[in-house]
Inverse folding.
């Protein structure tokens, strides 16, 4: 698998998850924290983002199902430069509003529930199923 990139919150939400860049930007809007101009920009940017790549749920409706795929999250392929560039103004919006975010990179995102040429949806690795080391014997 090629390298993967994800932009997500630096702190987990109340569910212990790290929402992605689009959820964070939309969260600012939904919380009423954006100016009229920022709301207008976000509306147009979301239209461009929706047109730029396939919504995985239109191809694999259960790819984010919380029972089948708990915690599934989206990753961009590092080769999808046009989508990574599309994220930059969203990240700038988060910066302007003091929303801490981080860039995460991996080649092994977890159990894949959907993939195409620009993105992957995966359930993150979990303990103990994905832990590579045997437990230490009790002393």
């Amino acid at each position: 698998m090629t390298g993967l990139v994800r932009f997500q919150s630096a702190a987990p939400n109340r569910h212990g998850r790290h929402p992605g860049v689009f959820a964070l930007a939309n969260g600012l809007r939904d919380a009423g924290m954006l100016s009229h101009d920022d709301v207008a920009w976000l509306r147009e940017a979301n239209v461009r983002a929706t047109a730029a790549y396939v919504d995985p749920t239109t191809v694999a409706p259960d790819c984010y199902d919380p029972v089948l795929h708990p915690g599934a999250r989206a990753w961009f392929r590092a080769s999808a430069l046009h989508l990574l560039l599309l994220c930059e103004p969203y990240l700038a919006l988060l910066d302007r509003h003091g929303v801490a975010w981080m860039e995460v990179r991996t080649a092994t995102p977890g159990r894949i529930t959907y993939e195409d040429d620009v993105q992957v949806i995966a359930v993150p690795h979990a303990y103990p199923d994905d832990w590579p080391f045997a437990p230490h014997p009790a002393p």
Summary: The helical segments are 21-30, 36-52, 81-96.
